Amino acid sequence: MYVLVSVPTATILGGPDLFVAKGSTINLTCLIRYSSDPTAYIFWYHDEKVISYDSGRGGVSVITEKGDITTSLLLIQKATEKDSGKYVCSPSNADVANIRVHVLNGQRPAAMQTGSAGLSNNSGNMVIIMLLGYLYSVLFEKMHLRLPYACAQR
């Protein structure tokens, strides 16, 4: 006999590194899956400091949609080099997820010169990325960790 065990997880799409052009919008999407309890809150951090949405910098917003899969989008407009660094999504009911953002001022890292990834501010690409993220989350939810019943009893 087997028992289905779900462990709440947080994932930031596009990691572990995200490269964006200076002046573009940083869009970080955090998915919280497999939670039996609703996510009460999600904090976002930049280089270990809580992100303030009403800071003097401006252009920072968060959109959160709660459901079977909770999605939190952190949007940072007009990216500058100061926006580079480690970002952390910290939900109330799951381990944290992180990503390293690199804001580029015209330079293109070797990993991006192959054409497999690129800088774009195109809204059509953003829609495709969000759709792929949604499809990924739906397919990923179908996969659950199966443990023998005896192990789950311990």
UniProtKB/TrEMBL annotation:
InterPro entries: Ig-like_dom, Ig-like_dom_sf, Ig-like_fold, Ig_sub, Ig_sub2, Zig-8. This is Ig-like domain-containing protein. GO terms for cellular component: neuron projection membrane. GO terms for biological process: synapse organization. PANTHER family: DEFECTIVE PROBOSCIS EXTENSION RESPONSE 10, ISOFORM A-RELATED, DEFECTIVE PROBOSCIS EXTENSION RESPONSE DPR -RELATED. Residues 8-100 form the Ig-like domain. Signal peptide: none annotated. Pfam families: Ig_3. CDD domains: Ig. It comes from the Eukaryota.
